[in-house]
């Protein structure tokens, strides 16, 4: 469906059949409310769920912020002599999330 005549177009968006405003408008019509602050221009790579998705290279990786966060959690874990179940569950959850990239 070509929606190019329904909303203003930037030079960047002229490469596509629709733009983010068209998606927002259609979503409102369908009753789906998106957080406008999370709108991003179309690109071949983007950050989603803490992963950097690069469609051109077909690579999924952790952002450097996530890598630093996980390394800090591991170092903090190693400095403690005892752990409660919640500590274990939190570190496990982070490492499980990170392991999805390596599959």
Structure description:
By secondary structure, the protein is an alpha+beta fold. 44% of the residues lie in helices and 12% in strands. It is built from three helices and three strands; from the N terminus they run αβββαα. A three-stranded antiparallel sheet has the order 1-2-3. The longest helix is centred in the C-terminal third of the chain and has 18 residues, at 85-102. It starts with 19 loop residues before the first helix and ends with a helix.
Task: Name the beta content range.
Answer: 5-15%
Task: Give me the strand/helix succession.
Answer: HEEEHH
Secondary structure class reads alpha+beta
State mean pLDDT (0 to 100 scale).
83
Q: Can you summarize the main beta sheet?
A: 3 strands, antiparallel
Rg, nearest Å = 20 Å
What's the overall geometry?
Answer: elongated
Helix amount, in percent? 40-55%
Summary tags:
103 residues; alpha+beta; three-stranded antiparallel sheet; 3 helices
Topology readout:
Elements: H1 20-30, E1 45-48, E2 51-54, E3 59-62, H2 64-79, H3 85-102
Antiparallel strand pairs: 1-2, 2-3
Helix pairs in contact: 2-3
Short synopsis of the structure:
Strand 2 and strand 3 form a beta hairpin. It contains three helices and three strands; from the N terminus they run αβββαα. 44% of the residues lie in helices and 12% in strands.
